[in-house]
Amino acid sequence: MDLPRTPSMRLDGKRALVTGASRGIGLALAAALAEAGAHVTLAARTQGPLEEVAQALREAGHSADALALDITDAGATRQAIEGFDQLDILVNSAGLARHGPALETAPEDYDAVVDVNLRAAYFLSQAAARAMRPRGGAILNVSSQMGHVGGIDRAVYCASKHAVEGMTKAMAIEFGPFNVRINTLCPTFIRTPLTEPTFADPEKRAWIEAKIKLGRVAEVTDLMGPAVFLCSDAAAMITGTHLLVDGGWTAG
User: Could you tell me the fold of the domain covering 15-251?
Assistant: First the structure.
């Protein structure tokens, strides 16, 4: 009897582009893909921090390079991707939040959040899918649990992430015929340098921990395995959907 074998989660021979890769979630996801064997191009606005991450990955025995890129410039992102000789994976991890009461949202704050979280992800996905069309590939949009629920002082952020969820579903329908998969990864509150002020507030931390059914704060490492899975052949039949990494937040 020939028993079925689990498809590999290895990414050897693949090239990945990860945005927002100089810190936080983006850095962790870039490291995860590199550990799985992919050559990772790290993208963010500032070259210096990217080079530090790329060097650290290379010193750990992985393959990585750095690309200074303003993802809100659709022309620049398209040109950068067109310059790759191969692209198999895109991880849209760059994100922006400007929280505050909906009654006080300023147009410039709305535009800034939507430009990064939605518009940039849209046109990066478009450019990546074009590059992947000859051989297939995987696109992973880092969304949020707030793409599925609402939150106080998060109307703009929730709007952008709900939109990313809809965009991903529609693109999956169009990209499927040429074997480009696109999904979202939806984390809860993750401990990063940017979120430390939130976790340092006892009242806010207590509220977060009460919502997370597993009873602990999430770490960037909680996202690394799910991201590799969705970008690998082990997820070859998964597209147009989301994976919540929220400790049960949305279940309640």
Answer: Rossmann fold (3.40.50)
